[in-house]
C-alpha cells in the first residue's frame, strides 16, 4: 500500500475533498412552479415575481402552452409511504462512528401511562423542563403506538410554528397532493377526517391556540410536549396532564456509567452526586458530564493533548483533574475548548444564527474545511446538540453558556457569511423546494441577524438572500417562512434604498395575502407595489400588480371571476380582470319601441379604479361604448345621446320640458357624417316650413307659443329670409321620436334624394360683433364648390336671444 496514504501515526489520513464553492456548478435556467390554492392558480417565478389568476378549469398551463390536468383530490398515503416520509424528516446522521444512544431510565411508568391514554383516544400534554428527556420519551411512545390509528403516527415539531402551520404539515404527511396547497376551508375539511396519533415536540403555544389545534383534528389523539413556561390549555380542552421530573440519584449515576462505558471511581461518583443535586437530576446534564469524563480519559492517554488543552500543572504531571462543579453544571465552553477547530467554528456560526445549526452539507463551505461535516458528530457526542425536526439546534442552555464565553464575537460577520452562502445555495436551480424548506430556520435566522436596523451594515445581502429564498419557500408550500422572508426582505430593501426590490416584496406579500383570504392587507401591499413600480416606469410589474388588484376587488365585492375560455389558436386567455361586464349593465324600462341596455357609470368616462389602467383590457361596459359609432358620439345628437351616454341623460331627455335641447346640434350638420343617406336625420326646429308645401303648418308652431313671421332659433337668432329651410317639428321631442339610424324616418321629415348634396347655409345677417367667430379645425372643415361651407363644417358663432355678445357653439367630443 502506498505510504502516502498514512500519516506519521497508525491511522489513515482522509483524502481532501473538493470544497463546496459557488463557482463549481454551471448555472442553469431557473424553473417556475405552479400551485393551486383555493380558486387561484399561483405561478411562482423566481425571476420576475409571482402571478396569480383564477385557476382555469383544465388545470395549470404547462410551459409548452398546453393545459395541464386539474390537481385531483388528495389521496391518503400508504403506511410504507408515511414511514419513508418519516425517515426523510429525521435529522441527518453525522459522519463517523455512531454515538451511544442514552438509555431511557426511570420512565417506565410515564411511558405506560402515555401509551394507555393515547390508545383510548385521549390527548395528553407532557410537561417537563428543558433537558428532562422529553424527546427521548416521545420517541419511545411513537414506537409503541404505530398501530393505534388508521393513519399511523405523525411526528411534528412545534419550534416556531403556529397552529395553521402545524395543520398544513399534518395534511402534508397524511395526504399526497402534488401541486395543491389547500386553503383554510379545504384544509379544515381534510384535517377533520385524519385519524392519527400526532406526536408534537417543542410546542410553543397554549391556551386558545392549543384548543384551536385540537378542535381542528377531532379524530386525532395528540401527544404534545412543552416546557412549564408555556401557557396551559383551556379548561374545556379535556387534555390530560403528565409531568416529567428529573432522574433520581441512582438512575443519574447509572446513566453516567453507561455513557462512559466503564465503572466510576469513588471520586467521580461523589462528583456526580453533587452534580445531581445541582442540576435537579436533568438527564441532559449527565450526558454532557459523561462527555467531560471521556475527554479526561483521552487527555490522560495523550500527554501532548493534555499540554495543549490544559496548560496547568497537575499532580504527578500526568493526571487530569475532574471539572469543577460549576463546569459540570455549565459544561458547554469547557467541552468546546477540547474539540477540533472546525467544531468550534461551527459553534460560532450556530451562536450567530440564534442556536440554529447549519446542515452538515453546508459546513465545509461555511467553515472553509473540506472535512468540517465531521464536526457535527463531535458536537452530538458531547451533548451540545439536540434534534429539532429535520435539523439540529444547540441543546438547552448551550447558547447562553457560549455567549458568556465570547462565542458571539463577530456574530454579524458570521451571519453575513452564512447569508451569502445561503443566497447562492437557495437560488441554485438544483436545490429542490423541499431542501430549502428543511433549511428554512437557519436561513431566516441569518436574515434576522442582518436586519435589526441600519447598524447591521449588510442590508443588501439580506435583500439578496430574501430574494433568493422566498420563491423556494413558496414553492415548498411553507408559506409562513415565505411571509417572514418577504417581510424581512422588504425592511432590508427599505434600509438599503432598493426601491425595485421593495416593490417586489410588497407585490409578493399582496399575492400571499390574497391567497390566504386577507383582502385588506392584499390591497394595501399591492397598491404600495404599484405606486413604486409606477415611479420606476416598470410597466410589466405594474400590469401584474393591477391584475392581482383586480382579483382583490372581485373578492371584496363577492364576485368569483369566470374561468378563462379558449379563443381559437391563441390558447387559454387570462381570466377577466375586475368586475365582469354583465355586472356593470342594467336594463332600463321599455320606452317607445326600444329596450336600452346602458352602462351604470357616468357615460362618456370609463371610471378608473386602482385595478384599471391603460394596460388593463376594457370590460363589457367599455365594449358597449366602443361599439357605438364614433361619429354619433361626436355630433352629440340629443336622441342618440340618451342611448349611448347613460341613464341620467336618458331621464333628462324624457322629462317634460318646453324647449327641446337643440344646442348641441349644429345647424345644417347631419347626424351621420359618414352616411348622408341615412334614414334618420337631425330635426331643425328653426326651419321655416312656409315654403314647404308638404309640411304641416300647425306643426311648425312651437307648443304654447304664438305664431310669428320669424321663429326664433334655438340659439336666439331669427331665421334669415334667404335660408334654405329644412323640415322640422318645433314640438318637444318625445322618447319615441329618438330612433337609431336604422329606424324609419319621422313622418314630418321627408328623406332627401340620394343625389342631393348636404344643404348649405348663407351667412347670417351682417350684424357687427365684437368677438370673431371661432375658426373650424382642419379635421372638420371642408369647402363646398362656390366657397360655401359644407355640412361637416361647424356653424358660425351664434347670438344670444337678447342680442348680446356672441358665444361659440359648444362641441361634444
Q: In short, what is this structure?
A:
This protein is 38% helix and 7% strand. With 813 residues, it is α/β, with parallel strands linked by helices.
Portion of residues in beta strands equals 5-15%
Estimate percent helicity: 25-40%
- The count of DSSP E runs of length 2 or more, i.e. the number of strands, is 15
* N-end to C-end Cα span: 97 Å
Name the average pLDDT.
73
The main sheet comes to: 5 strands, parallel
Described by its quaternary structure, the protein is: single chain
What does this 3D model show about the protein?
- Helix content is 38%, strand content 7%.
- It is an alpha/beta fold and 813 residues long.
- The chain has a five-stranded parallel sheet, with helices on both faces. A three-stranded antiparallel sheet has the order 1-2-3.
- Helix 7 (249-260) crosses helix 8.
Topology:
Blueprint: E1 33-37, E2 40-44, E3 51-54, E4 75-76, H1 79-88, H2 108-119, E5 124-127, H3 134-144, E6 153-157, H4 163-174, E7 175-176, H5 184-192, E8 197-201, H6 208-216, E9 221-226, E10 240-243, H7 249-260, H8 266-279, H9 283-301, H10 303-309, H11 325-329, H12 332-337, H13 341-352, E11 356-357, H14 363-367, H15 375-381, E12 385-388, E13 391-394, H16 398-404, H17 411-426, H18 433-438, H19 440-450, H20 459-475, H21 479-496, H22 499-515, H23 519-535, H24 539-557, E14 585-587, E15 597-599, H25 620-627, H26 630-635, H27 638-645, H28 647-653
Parallel strand pairs: 5-9, 5-10, 6-8, 8-9
Antiparallel strand pairs: 1-2, 2-3, 4-7, 11-13, 12-13, 14-15
Helix pairs in contact: 2-3, 4-6, 7-8, 7-9, 9-10, 13-15, 13-17, 17-19, 17-20, 19-20, 19-21, 20-21, 21-22, 22-23, 22-24, 23-24, 27-28
Amino acid at each position: 500500500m502506498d505510504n502516502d496514504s498514512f500519516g506519521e501515526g497508525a491511522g489513515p489520513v482522509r483524502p481532501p475533498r473538493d470544497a463546496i464553492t459557488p463557482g463549481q456548478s454551471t448555472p442553469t435556467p431557473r424553473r417556475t412552479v405552479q400551485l393551486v390554492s383555493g380558486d387561484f392558480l399561483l405561478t411562482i417565478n423566481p425571476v420576475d415575481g409571482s402571478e396569480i389568476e383564477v385557476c382555469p378549469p383544465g388545470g395549470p398551463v404547462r410551459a409548452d402552452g398546453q393545459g395541464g390536468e386539474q390537481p385531483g383530490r388528495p389521496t391518503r398515503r400508504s403506511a410504507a409511504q408515511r414511514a419513508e416520509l418519516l425517515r426523510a424528516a429525521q435529522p441527518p446522521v453525522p459522519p463517523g462512528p455512531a454515538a451511544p444512544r442514552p438509555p431511557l431510565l426511570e420512565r417506565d411508568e410515564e411511558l405506560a401511562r402515555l401509551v394507555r391514554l393515547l390508545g383510548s383516544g385521549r390527548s395528553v400534554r407532557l410537561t417537563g423542563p428543558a433537558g428532562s428527556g422529553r424527546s427521548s420519551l416521545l420517541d419511545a411512545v411513537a414506537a409503541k403506538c404505530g398501530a393505534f390509528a388508521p393513519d399511523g403516527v405523525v411526528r411534528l415539531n412545534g419550534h416556531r410554528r403556529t397552529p395553521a402551520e402545524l395543520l398544513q404539515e399534518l395534511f402534508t404527511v397524511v395526504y399526497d397532493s402534488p401541486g395543491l396547497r389547500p386553503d383554510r376551508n379545504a384544509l379544515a375539511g381534510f384535517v377533520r377526517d385524519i385519524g392519527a396519533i400526532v406526536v408534537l415536540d417543542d410546542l410553543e403555544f397554549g391556551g386558545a391556540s392549543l384548543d384551536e389545534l385540537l378542535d381542528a383534528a377531532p379524530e386525532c389523539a395528540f401527544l404534545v410536549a412543552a416546557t412549564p413556561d408555556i401557557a396551559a390549555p383551556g379548561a374545556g380542552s379535556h387534555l390530560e396532564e403528565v409531568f416529567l421530573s428529573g432522574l433520581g440519584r441512582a438512575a443519574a449515576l447509572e446513566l453516567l456509567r453507561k455513557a462512559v462505558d466503564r465503572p466510576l471511581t469513588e471520586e467521580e461518583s461523589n462528583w456526580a452526586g453533587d452534580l445531581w443535586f445541582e442540576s435537579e437530576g436533568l438527564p441532559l446534564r449527565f450526558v454532557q458530564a459523561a462527555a467531560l469524563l471521556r475527554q479526561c480519559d483521552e487527555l490522560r492517554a495523550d500527554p501532548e493533548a493534555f499540554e495543549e488543552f490544559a496548560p496547568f500543572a497537575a499532580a504527578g504531571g500526568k493526571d487530569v483533574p475532574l471539572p469543577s462543579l460549576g463546569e459540570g453544571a455549565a459544561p458547554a465552553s469547557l467541552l468546546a475548548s477540547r474539540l477540533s477547530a472546525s467544531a468550534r467554528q461551527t459553534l460560532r456560526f450556530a451562536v450567530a444564527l440564534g442556536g440554529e445549526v447549519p446542515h452538515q452539507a453546508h459546513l465545509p463551505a461555511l467553515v472553509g474545511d473540506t472535512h468540517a461535516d465531521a464536526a457535527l458528530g463531535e458536537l452530538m457526542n458531547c451533548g451540545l446538540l439536540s434534534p429539532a425536526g429535520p435539523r439540529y439546534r444547540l441543546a438547552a442552555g448551550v447558547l447562553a453558556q457560549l455567549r458568556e464565553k465570547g462565542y458571539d464575537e463577530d456574530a454579524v460577520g458570521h451571519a453575513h457569511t452564512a447569508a451569502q452562502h445561503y443566497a447562492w445555495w437557495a437560488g441554485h436551480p438544483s436545490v429542490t423546494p423541499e431542501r430549502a424548506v428543511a433549511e428554512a430556520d437557519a436561513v431566516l435566522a441569518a436574515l434576522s441577524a442582518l436586519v435589526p436596523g441600519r447598524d447591521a451594515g449588510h442590508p443588501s445581502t439580506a435583500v439578496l438572500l430574501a430574494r433568493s429564498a422566498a420563491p423556494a419557500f413558496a414553492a415548498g408550500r411553507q408559506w409562513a417562512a415565505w411571509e417572514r422572508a418577504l417581510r424581512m426582505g422588504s425592511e432590508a430593501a427599505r434600509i438599503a434604498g432598493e426601491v425595485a426590490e421593495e416593490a417586489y416584496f410588497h407585490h409578493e406579500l399582496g399575492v400571499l395575502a390574497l391567497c390566504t383570504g386577507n383582502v385588506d392587507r392584499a390591497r394595501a401591499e399591492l397598491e404600495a407595489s404599484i405606486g413604486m413600480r409606477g415611479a420606476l416606469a416598470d410597466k410589466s410589474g405594474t400590469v401584474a400588480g393591477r391584475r392581482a388588484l383586480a382579483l382583490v376587488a372581485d373578492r371584496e365585492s363577492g364576485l368569483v371571476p369566470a374561468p378563462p375560455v379558449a379563443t381559437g389558436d391563441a390558447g387559454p386567455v387570462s381570466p377577466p380582470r375586475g368586475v365582469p361586464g354583465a355586472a356593470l349593465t342594467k336594463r332600463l324600462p321599455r320606452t317607445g319601441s326600444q329596450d336600452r341596455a346602458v352602462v351604470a357609470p357616468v357615460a362618456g368616462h370609463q371610471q378608473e379604479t386602482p385595478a384599471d389602467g391603460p394596460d388593463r383590457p376594457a370590460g363589457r361596459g367599455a365594449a358597449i361604448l366602443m361599439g357605438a359609432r364614433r361619429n354619433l358620439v361626436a355630433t352629440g345628437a340629443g336622441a342618440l345621446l340618451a342611448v349611448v351616454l347613460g341613464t341620467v341623460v336618458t331621464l333628462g331627455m324624457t322629462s317634460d320640458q318646453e324647449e327641446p335641447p337643440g344646442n348641441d346640434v349644429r345647424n345644417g350638420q347631419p347626424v351621420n357624417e359618414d352616411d348622408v343617406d341615412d334614414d334618420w336625420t337631425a330635426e331643425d326646429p328653426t326651419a321655416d316650413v312656409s315654403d314647404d308645401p308638404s309640411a304641416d303648418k300647425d306643426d311648425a308652431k312651437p307648443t304654447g307659443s304664438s305664431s310669428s313671421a320669424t321663429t326664433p332659433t334655438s340659439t336666439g337668432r331669427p331665421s334669415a329670409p334667404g335660408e334654405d329651410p329644412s323640415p322640422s317639428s318645433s314640438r318637444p321631442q318625445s322618447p319615441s321620436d329618438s330612433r337609431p339610424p336604422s329606424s324609419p324616418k319621422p313622418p314630418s321629415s321627408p328623406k332627401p334624394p340620394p343625389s342631393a348634396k348636404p344643404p348649405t347655409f348663407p351667412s347670417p345677417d351682417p350684424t357687427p360683433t365684437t368677438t370673431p367667430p371661432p375658426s373650424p379645425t382642419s379635421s372638420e372643415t371642408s369647402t363646398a364648390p362656390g366657397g360655401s361651407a359644407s355640412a361637416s363644417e361647424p356653424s358660425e358663432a351664434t347670438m344670444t336671444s337678447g342680442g348680446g355678445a356672441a358665444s361659440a357653439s359648444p362641441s361634444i367630443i
